[in-house]
């Protein structure tokens, strides 16, 4: 499904926009880093980076005992650019949810506006740390637009019976420590794709809600062990078959490098909910 792209003209225009925005963005990141170094508690902000853990969950139990902890990122690699897929909801393929009042939020489980439907599924907190790939500095004040499919493998705004729903989509401002967090549910594995989460990075919230230039478009890969634990629970039955029919190496997005720079670190359990953490270099 996500192998569809936005087209050559869009890709060229987006690359040009990224080059322009990144030129300006670098200065903002350096200024933010200097400010952090001169303020109280700057050692905490400077030391914040990717969460790393090794999940110990097993299929059917979901008993993961590891925790996601921050570690330094001295050699941060820029996260690969990836397709936004056919269901971005950012105005590039039909509907635009970014200019809707209510899109700036951290809890994305429910729709807002004319519907208040809540997406069912195993709880998932998605925590991204956004940094300048060249300096390692936190990109405080940037904005992240994040979206993913529901437990049935369908996307709000586009799926059958879901055109009036906008759940599992939201925009958040990156904090002073470079982090942004979303409360959501674990997405399904649908046919032809490895389980994943989409995101776009913008210069700031104002640019995001105006559907302005995108700084980075990419995807987060979810670890196999955690997927197996979640998909063994009720409501994810079709994901068991879909997960078994693909792999990171075969995936048309992550396959080039097996998602080495995009695999989230996981902590938690099926019963308590999971946290997916990833540091992304922009």
UniProtKB/TrEMBL annotation:
Chain segments carrying region Disordered: 53-94
What is the protein's given name? 3,4-dioxygenase subunit beta
Name the domain of life this protein comes from: Bacteria
Q: Which SUPFAM superfamilies match?
A: Aromatic compound dioxygenase
Q: Which organism is it from?
A: Subtercola boreus
Q: Where is the Intradiol ring-cleavage dioxygenases domain?
A: 118-192
The coiled-coil regions, if any, are none
Care to name a GO molecular-function term for this sequence? ferric iron binding
Q: Entry's CDD domains?
A: intradiol_dioxygenase_like
Question: Keywords assigned by UniProt?
Answer: Dioxygenase, Oxidoreductase
Ranges annotated as biased composition (Low complexity) = 53-72
């Amino acid at each position: 499904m996500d192998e569809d792209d936005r087209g050559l003209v869009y890709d060229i225009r987006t690359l040009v926009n990224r080059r322009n925005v990144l030129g300006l963005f670098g200065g903002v990141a350096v200024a933010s880093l200097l400010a952090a170094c001169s303020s109280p508690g700057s050692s905490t902000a400077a030391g914040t980076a990717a969460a790393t853990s090794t999940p110990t969950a097993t299929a059917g139990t979901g008993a993961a005992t590891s925790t996601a902890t921050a570690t330094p990122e001295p050699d941060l690699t820029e996260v690969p650019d990836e397709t936004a897929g056919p269901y971005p909801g950012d105005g590039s393929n039909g509907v635009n949810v970014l200019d809707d009042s209510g899109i700036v939020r951290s809890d994305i489980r429910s729709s807002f506006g004319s519907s208040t439907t809540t997406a069912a599924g195993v709880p998932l907190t998605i925590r991204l740390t956004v940094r300048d790939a060249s300096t390692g500095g936190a990109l405080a004040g940037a904005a992240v637009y994040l979206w993913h499919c529901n437990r049935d493998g369908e996307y709000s705004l586009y799926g059958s019976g879901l055109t009036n729903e906008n759940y599992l989509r939201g925009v958040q401002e990156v904090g002073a420590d470079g982090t942004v967090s979303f409360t959501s549910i674990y997405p399904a594995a649908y046919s032809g794709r490895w389980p994943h989460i989409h995101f776009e990075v913008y210069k700031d919230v104002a640019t995001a809600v105006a559907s302005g230039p995108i700084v980075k478009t990419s995807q987060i890969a979810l670890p196999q062990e955690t997927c197996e634990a979640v998909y063994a629970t009720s409501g994810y039955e079709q994901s068991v078959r879909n997960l078994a029919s693909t792999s990171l190496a075969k995936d048309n997005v992550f396959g080039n490098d097996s998602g080495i720079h995009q695999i989230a670190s996981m902590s938690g359990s099926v019963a308590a909910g999971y946290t997916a953490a990833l540091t992304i270099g922009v």
